[in-house]
Amino acid sequence: MNRFLAIGIRLMNRLRYPQKFALITCLFAVPLALLFYLWLVQIAARIDFTRQELAGLQYIVALRQLLEPLQRTQALGVLAAADRPASSAALAQERERIATGAEAVDRADRQLGGQLRTDASWSSLRARVADNGAPPEPFVGETLRLIAQVGDSSNLILDPELDSYYLMDAVVLRLPVLSEQLRAFGVATLAPASGPRDPALDGQAIAARTRAAAERAALQRGHAVAFRANPALRATLEAPLAASAAAVDSFMRLTGDAVAPDAPPPHFGPTSDAFQHYAAAAGAVFGHFDAAAPALDDLLAARVRRLTHYRALLIGLVICTLAVVAYLWVSFYAAVRQAVQALDDVSHRMRAGDFTGPLALESRDELSQVVESFNRVAAQLRLEWARAQDESARARAAEAAAEAATRAKSEFLAVMSHEIRTPMSGILGMTHLLLSTRLDKEQRRQAEIVRDSGESLLAVLNDILDFSKMEAGRLELMAADFDLSTLVDNVASLLGPRAREKDLYLETALADDVPRALSGDDGRLRQVLLNLVGNAIKFTDRGGVCVEVSRLGSENGRTGLRFAVVDTGIGIAPEAQERLFQEFTQVDLSATRRFSGTGLGLAIVKRIVTAMGGRVGVASAPGQGSTFWFEVALRPAVRAITPRSPRPLVAVRPLRILVAEDNVVNQQVARGLLKMHGHQVEIVSDGRAAVEAVRTGTWDVVLMDAHMPIMDGCTATGEIRRLPGERGHVPIIAMSASVTREDTAAFLAAGMNGYLPKPIDPPALAEALAKLSGAGTSDAASLAPAGEPTDEVVDEAHVRLLFDALGAAKISQLVEGIEAETAPHRARLAAACASGDLAAALAAAHAVKGVAASLGMTALAELSDGIESAAARGDAQRYATLLPALEPALAEAVARLRTLCAGMR
Ligand code: ADP
């Protein structure tokens, strides 16, 4: 069955519903339409046929008016020949009736002659009938032939219906023939009695009587059939039929009662009575005709009406059927579309997460089955959805809780790191101090153990903190221009001492085609290299370590670089290599392992390299050393970079430092940075307090802000230099946000040993202090670092340093307070612009510059510097040009700091 339907199913599946409807409708509508058409054509043909019959009947009725007087005229002619006066009068009367009959035929012929093709026959007959002297006998025969011709051309003789057929038979054939036979019989019997009887006339009389009897009998039979077929005819025709039959019989009986059909007719002589008998019989026959013709006309007209109604009914039925079929098709299609649309709407809703209520469809067909299945699936989905919603709500809550926990953890770690690293710095600082004092051998050994343990602990703490930050997704890479060879050298010089301690070589090899000026997060790159090189030194006892950098190629404006740290150390077994780069993984997990460590270093390396879009790996064999490599793609530097010769890291013992600084922000920054390096810090807010602190305390160095209230830095330095003894010689280093040549000259003239730019860079300070302690003299020029102009809004490296030194909370607090902190200075700068008193603006510009520099707001510091110089030169125009940029620069720097702080938390 399925195979049988396969073709149909395939066809139907390819079509849309309207196409299906159109196809099916065409397939059955075309033959039906053809049938209907043929039917209608047939009905129309029958109507035309019947109309033609009606026309023929009308014409024959007109001919009948001519036929009767013609026959009577002939019969009268016989009387006239017998010289009967009465007959002559009657003859004239009949002639009039002939003329009237001919006019009736004229009218009928005008109307119907063309249609019935009688015009030629009639016009020839008409011309002769009009002639009064012409004998009527041949006209009777022609009229009878014309009646027969009209019967032919009007289809009357082909009439198919039983009732009408016999009426037609009577009207067209039987009654005219009967009247003619009566005439012939009458003429033959009315022949003159005088003279011998003409045997031919007798023969005619016998033949006429015989035919008349036959016609009469045929009429009786035909009418009987017609009455059976249409009993209503009986009422109209039974009496005329009986009358004509009786008249014929009585006329025939005049010639003898028991006349044998073949016996010669009796002679009753040409009397006017005899004519009267003939006239009565012929009159009855024509009376019968006059009753039969209207009855036939009624029948035919009724048939035309019936057929017309039938046709109208059929057309109406076809139109109604078509309308109903079209209506049902359209309704069916609309119902299907409604159901499909409803399904579509609900599935749309479901896709948008709305699972409310099942789909309701008022249908009992197959579509309702589909809808029921759909509703079942929807109900199932609703359940699943609700469950999924629950689960995802739970998951979200869990995720939020986890995020909150992670945030809390990383915040806690950030706080803790600061809190732990500060005392650790104290421990290390004090240990350094301790080691710089006079100690016996054992004490020194113990102090060195404390220092080494502290340093290891600090390294572990840094690792854990770093890793937890990365785990919390807080690894944000910075982008800054840097010099690659400086970075690699920096790593080598940092770890060089450790390598030398173990008698290992530490080499670097940058291929010639490796670009030096690059852009990226050099801090993180340095961290990766420090980790790998640190490990390589740790796990190598003989030979050494080489850091190789080679170029891989360029793509999308980035250069691929491969860093390989090759050592000649203990190597790693293949099975252990698989576990590397996972957190807390160490190859040697035995309690007696030789090498300490957290197992976090390589995990951190992997996270950083992956964050940079690179990959990391190792090639190693036990006893044959290892090669740890990583590949990253970096962009070229935006600006040209002058590679700086790596600043030698100078180890400085922890110092007692007095900081004279009036600005709160600067105070906090200086304290944080210095403490981070293990120094002891005391802060005073003006020059007089600084002098007092030096007079009463013991300091290794004084960091003196140049501009301070109550007493400025230079005055305070002069006072300190006048103090007696060692105190008067305490090293004093000026701190200034900008250092012009005049400034440095003034600092040195006042007795300061050197100067440092703000914010304090601890390595630069260490370097300066080492120089001071080494040379014991001032070397101001060499203390100033080679600062490079920059157009950065914020110095990210410095901010990161601050973050480590002061902690997240403190930095945020400083950033949020900066606008309020600088508000009075900014107001003074604006007032000075309005009043033109630029001298009044000098201190304010300097203060803003100091705060900006302390917090690493490079662009703001440079702008304030420009404003300060303009004020110093009295250049009101330049001052007025620069000042409007101050507020936007501050806002931009604060926004940038906020983002950075958020990223570093
Ligand atoms: P750890 O703090 O223990 O050094 P790492 O993640 O840096 O943690 O290293 C994980 C382990 O990988 C180390 O404990 C060591 O066993 C092995 N490893 C790392 N680098 C080397 C190397 N250069 N040679 C041999 N083994 C190494």
Overall 3D shape: rod-shaped
Radius of gyration using CA atoms only: 69 Å
**Low-pLDDT residue spans:** 644-651, 775-791
Mean pLDDT: 82
For the largest beta-sheet, the strand count, sense and barrel status come to: 7 strands, mixed
Strand content bin: 5-15%
Judged by helices, strands and strand pairing, the structural class is: alpha/beta
Q: What's the helical proportion of residues?
A: 55-70%
| Each distinct ligand | adenosine-5'-diphosphate
Offer a quick outline of the entry.
This protein has 905 residues and is α/β, with parallel strands linked by helices. The protein has helices spanning 2-14, 17-81, 85-116, 119-129, 137-153, 162-189, 199-229, 232-253, 272-351, 366-435, 441-471, 484-501, 522-538, 574-577, 601-611, 664-676, 687-696, 713-721, 741-750, 762-775, 780-783, 796-806, 808-835, 842-854, 858-873, 876-882, 886-904, and strands at 480-483, 505-510, 517-520, 544-555, 558-567, 615-620, 626-636, 656-660, 680-684, 701-705, 732-736, 754-757.
Describe this structure in words.
- The chain has 905 residues and is of the alpha/beta class.
- It contains 27 helices and twelve strands.
- The chain has helices spanning 2-14, 17-81, 85-116, 119-129, 137-153, 162-189, 199-229, 232-253, 272-351, 366-435, 441-471, 484-501, 522-538, 574-577, 601-611, 664-676, 687-696, 713-721, 741-750, 762-775, 780-783, 796-806, 808-835, 842-854, 858-873, 876-882, 886-904; strands spanning 480-483, 505-510, 517-520, 544-555, 558-567, 615-620, 626-636, 656-660, 680-684, 701-705, 732-736, 754-757.
- The strands form two sheets. Strands 1, 2, 3, 4, 5, 6 and 7 form a seven-stranded mixed β-sheet that branches. The chain has a five-stranded parallel β-sheet with strand order 9-8-10-11-12, sandwiched between helices.
- A hairpin with a 2-residue loop joins strand 4 (544-555) and strand 5 (558-567).
- Helix 4 (119-129) runs antiparallel to helix 5, helix 12 (484-501) runs parallel beside helix 13 and helix 22 (796-806) packs across helix 27 (886-904).
- The longest helix is centred in the middle third of the chain and has 80 residues, at 272-351.
- The structure holds adenosine-5'-diphosphate.
- Residues 535-536, 539, 567, 569-570, 572, 580, 585-588, 597-603, 626, 628 line the site of adenosine-5'-diphosphate (ADP).
- Adenosine-5'-diphosphate binds at residues 535-536, 539, 567, 569-570, 572, 580, 585-588, 597-603, 626, 628.
